[in-house]
Amino acid sequence: MSAPSLVIHPTQQVLVHGVAGRLINALADAQARRGEASVVLTGGRVAAQVYAAVAASPARDAVDWARVHFWWGDERFVPAGDEDRNEIGARAALLNALPVDQRNVHPIPGQGAFADPQEAAAHYESELKRVGEGDWPTFDVLLLGVGEDAHVASLFPHHEALRVVEPAVLGVHGSPKPPPMRVTLSLGAINSAREVWLVASGPGKADAVALAYGSVMGSRQASVEEAPASGVRGTEATRWLLDAAASARLSSE
Ligand SMILES: O=C1O[C@H](COP(=O)(O)O)[C@@H](O)[C@H](O)[C@H]1O
């Protein structure tokens, strides 16, 4: 498990472009090492801006997008095509703008294809094992937003999904943030990624960031149950990438 690092960007715009540049570099580096790369996408407002910045960046051509596998860390269990799906935003801002190989795009299935989130989760786990040839693929970069309640992916404070180790992809019922049914990677699965990046922007995230990052650094005492974001670690890097507003309460920690 890696020690967390923190980068505070002066504005949301600098954060968005900073994360976009990092992502392009990380995927290009992974391809230079191994020929292909993988990224786990997140939902959320700032992520949508990061995706648009990647798509608009002249540096994007450093990556062979046809050799990038795209996964999702969580998905809202609503019908395919529903605007609430994280997949829809990622396709609109990123995937539709890049020369991706659709065979390497792995959305979490929605309602309709499967009767309940558990079935969709089981299907996603089998897709991960299919691509990983029996094992889970090792993700190069796993992106996470941070909720106002310090949730990550669809792992919410005090929710039973936080405590599940097996299976690694979980169906979630009773999400406190709508919609109530979701599918998410477990904390253990998230923590199998080489690099985990927690991206947070704006004053609405300042309390959650202070609680979760403060607990990681020992200045606060919240458990992972209270602040799921505090339980996240990549095997090689854990990056907290914030703007000044989201970090505003850290200085008093
Ligand atoms: O519901 C979700 O919320 C979080 C955070 O979203 P934000 O708009 O507050 O940044 C997101 O990371 C997660 O993927 C999504 O399903």
Rg calc = 17 Å
Number of helices: 6
Main beta sheet strand tally, sense and closure = 6 strands, parallel
Which CATH top level class fits?
A: Alpha Beta
Could you tell me the mean pLDDT? 96
Number of domains: 1
Looking at the structure, the CATH topology is Rossmann fold
Q: How many β-strand runs? A: 9
The secondary-structure class comes to: alpha/beta
| H/E series | EHEHEEHHEEEHEHE
> How much of the residues is beta strand, in percent?
15-25%
Bound molecules: ligand LXAUTJHC
> Which bin fits the share of residues in helices?
25-40%
Named at the architecture level, the CATH assignment is: 3-Layer(aba) Sandwich
Calculate the terminal CA-CA distance, rounded to whole Å: 24 Å
Shape: globular
- Strand arrangement in the largest pleated sheet: 1-9-8-5-2-3
Given as residue ranges, the uncertain stretches (5+ residues, pLDDT < 50) are none
EC number: 3.1.1.31
Organism: Natronoglycomyces albus
Pfam families: Glucosamine_iso
Pathway: Carbohydrate degradation; pentose phosphate pathway; D-ribulose 5-phosphate from D-glucose 6-phosphate (oxidative stage): step 2/3
